[in-house]
Amino acid sequence: MKRIVIIGATSAIAHAAARLWAGQGAALFLVGRNAERLDINAADLRVRGAASVVVHAMDATDDAAHAPMLAAAVEALGGIDVSLIAHGTLPNQRECETDSARLRAEIETNGVSVCLLAQLFANRFVVQGGGTLAVIGSVAGDRGRQSNYVYGAAKGMVARFLEGLRNRLARSGVQVLLVKPGFVDTPMTAEFDKKGLLWAQPEGVAAGILKAIDGGRDVVYLPWFWRYIMWIIRHIPERLFKRLSL
Amino acid sequence: MGSWGNLRYDPPSRQRRLFDRAAPLPASAVPLLAWGNGRSYGDVCINSGGELLETGGLDRYLAFDATTGVLRAEAGVLLDDIIRSFLPRGWFLPVTPGTRFITLGGALANDVHGKNHHVAGTFGNHVARFELLRSDGARLECSPTQNVELYAATVGGLGLTGLVTWVELQLRRVAGPAIAVENRRFHGLDEFFALNAAAEKSHEHVVAWIDCLAATPRGILMAGNHADGVPPAPTFSPAVPFTPPFSLINHASLAAFNAAYFHRPLPARQTLHLLPYFYPLDNIRQWNRIYGRRGFYQYQCAVPQAVQQDATAELLAAIRASGQGSFLAVLKTFGDIASPGLLSYPLPGANLALDFPNGGAATLELFGRLDAIVREAGGRLYPAKDARMPGALFRQGYPRWQEFSNHIDPRFSSSFWRRITET
Lengths: 246, 423
What we know:
Chain A is α/β, with parallel strands linked by helices.
């Protein structure tokens, strides 16, 4: 029986992943801001076969709450096999360009709090002698673009942080997986027009996450074709790139 | 977000996906309507100029009692999801329509029926309770003993009484995924009604395919019972990849296909996986595209027992004379279990459903002739399949429509309802 902690468990991708784990009879520890919505998801996962589901309300940007959350998770599960860090927001880029408090808050939520939690779990896994840390980043972290570079900068910070963490833990049997989804049809992207072929469903992304965990991967783009799209985007010379409206 | 018949409708002014069942209804200046998975054929799920509330994000289970089989789930959960979750645990839907890609809310709002109507009644007969969110903010738990009037109005109420947030459904115990099927060819309606009556005594599920073009109505009666064993589930599911500019179903292709299908080697008894038995068309994704860009209609009507054979014969004769029709023609009888809804479709008698490519005026003229037969017989048409019935026929077929309309939420409406009440 897998023991799994999910931060940001009410997000669509996280819940889709939790359903897959529930179907395997996993024990789940769900963390999110809104206790009522966590309870709604927990009931769903119990019906779908989870061995146990415990919910824990926490704001990820509240650093002081991190360690007690980990202690509660360890107590509830006995140990942790996988932790999935999936919380985040999609900043309003325009607002951040003039509102520095907003900018700071978005970087805190999508960047700093993710790094702090990643480190917390990583250190726990070292003590345990193994485990999987999976973090949801974004293709937006691969290159700064005028349309959402605040989000991109935070996700880029996470990517670089995990790169180092992975390097540090390479000999300790801890898997550090960065998941980079492309466009996913979730409440977070509710305001977008989702007619294009590039839009994926959270269920598919979740299946990709479980597969990447089982396959021991380091970095995975979901769906797979984003790897090639982002390769091209990363290789456009800056002199040209800066003039593009992306 | 259209409907299954691919007929053209003016779009809604806004569509919004719901994710949180605890949230209030959105503020909106235009009428609201829930949209589940768009599998009704005409305009009961269409709200031109209004706002559609897509319920696909309300897809969570609330609770399941493994001893009683009572499942409580959000209204956007697909029947397909329920089958995936509970068939492996020995539970199946108590009543299922011919597609599993509909939501619980849609099944409730159309009070759908299945091949077991003679023993199980409609879907609504197995709904113990549900929550209805009204535009005044009230959340009402409705059951046969609580908020009784809104319960009766909402079962089969075409989504007009408010937003259903969750539904409690009594699942049915099954030994496994197998169905033991008996197939019988019949020639003529005398033989159909005799075979059908006998089959209903021995089988839970009974339905017939009919060849609507044959000089004497003929077809195949398929009667099934849940059985032991685990037959293989279908794995490959092809899709119709695009909509051809014209219908692939026409008189010539249909006559050939029907003759071949009728005369195909037919095992008298076989054991099937229940998926291909209940949902033969679900295995061909987007099969509605075969009717081309103009889309198609389904004509589904029920006529009372006393006149069922004569009326069915007249309907089939009129269809045959028109030379229109399609492969998809289904005949079954409804039993006398009372439906819980004010607007529930089934009545004790015969139920005939046929698809027709949209041939414009010629198709609508045929429907006018069929309407006259249904009206004379004291029958009714099925709103879930309808895109064109005259308001007068609806009002005759559903005499409790005025009582129903008192329960419509003032902020909800649909293109179907506006059409039915304004013509």
